[in-house]
Amino acid sequence: MDNRVISSDDPNAIQKLQDKLEMCEKSQKYMKEVNAYYRKNGTCEGFPGMEAARAARLDESVRQAYSWDKQPFPSYALTNNSAEIRRLKQRIEKLTVNQEVGFVGWTFDGGEVVANSEENRLQILFDEKPDEQKRSALKGNGFKWSPSQGAWQRQLNDNAIYAASRMEFLRPESGESPVKLQPKAPKKDAPER
Question: Is the whole model's pTM more than 0.85, yes or no?
Answer without folding.
Answer: no
